[in-house]
Hints:
The protein is an all-alpha fold. α2 runs antiparallel to α8. The two termini are 27 Å apart. It has helices at 9-24, 27-41, 46-73, 83-101, 106-134, 137-147, 150-164, 169-190, 210-213, 220-240, 243-250, 253-256, 262-287, 294-314, 318-345, 353-381, 387-405. The model has no long low-confidence stretch (mean pLDDT 80). It has a single domain, classed as MFS general substrate transporter like domains (Growth Hormone, Chain: A, Up-down Bundle).
Amino acid sequence: MSERRPVGPAFLISYAIAYIGAFLGVAPLLQILAPVHAAAIDPAAKAAIFSQAIFYGCVAAGFGNILGGAISDRTRSRHGRRRPWIIVGAVLTVASYAVLLWSRTPFMMVVGLVCFQLAFNVLLAPLIALFADRVPDNRRGVMSGVLGMAYPLAVTMGSVIMAWGPQSETARFATLGGIVLLATIPFALLSREDAPPPGEVRALSSGLSPRSLFKPFANRDFSLAWAVRFLIATGYSLVAFYLLYYIADAIGYADLYPGQTAEAGHSLVMTVSLIGVLGVSFLVALAGSRIRRRKLLGIGGGVLLSGAALLLGVTPDWMLVVVAFVFYGMGQGAFGSIEMALMTDVLPSAEDRGKDLGLINLAVTLPQATAPLAALVLLEGFGFGFRSLFFAAVACFACATLALAAIRRVR
Length: 411
């Protein structure tokens, strides 16, 4: 295996910007633009349209993530393996926004989200693989802490942009497209990546049989880490996807604060959540390699997430919702700050990093497909309305915490 080129602060900072920028392209889309677009197509069937589009889109995301990682593993280029596909994925992601923007029927909205998820994951898979390729062990704690802020920061920034930025749908999509291109393309063009030795590059079809593809699951710790990420992501999805509807319908935010929209309430709770995320993530990044027990930090995050989701499920009071999201953010920060390092630590082989990280990322995309289906059952069958989603999230976070405690390779 080739020796890693030393990385300096410039690479680490630009990588973090690209990573956060990429997630800014997806978080507000799934949490704000897609629900609003579904409501514009048919207000009476908005939840069903949105759930169907999310389901098929996320099935495509799982396929795109594994394929994007596998192709980058097998790419031979003087520009490296990962960087060309980051550029291709970014351009295709922006093009997919146009497909979604112009959709006027439920079927075309499904097509738009499928195109988006395929394109976005062609960008995301090689971008994440670069973490394993380039970041040395002694800097993974710091970088994992920084990257743990990425998704919550993207959610909050995206929510604020959607609430207080351009209000036309076209301008909102154009804003997201500009952010994705400005964050990722300069990084891919200007960063350096060694071309892998010939022995590390294989034919595209090699190692992609069903048996080889899922071989990492024979490793106990890999399977447990996958389960942890799947359960955490399912809980996140149950909370996030229908939060706008929860604020509007279950809390009645516009009635509590006349003249304010549900989007404004959404941006408020996302902002206070971000305060918790940044506080914990900053402390973890500052401590860096001095943190010897990553697993305990993740377990603490799981406990905080469980408690916050339980409070959201039982309280009718808006101020307690805000308090719950402070603790929710702290839980996200604690778990997210060790997530990337945890997933990298359990990879069974170096030559299939991209593909195996694609499998791990499948644990994030699958819940985005299954959570809407579970939500439809919970919303119609248990009589608690949107609050039932938070009770299900409690179960997911608690089970994830137990699975994390069982991983042996990570202290």
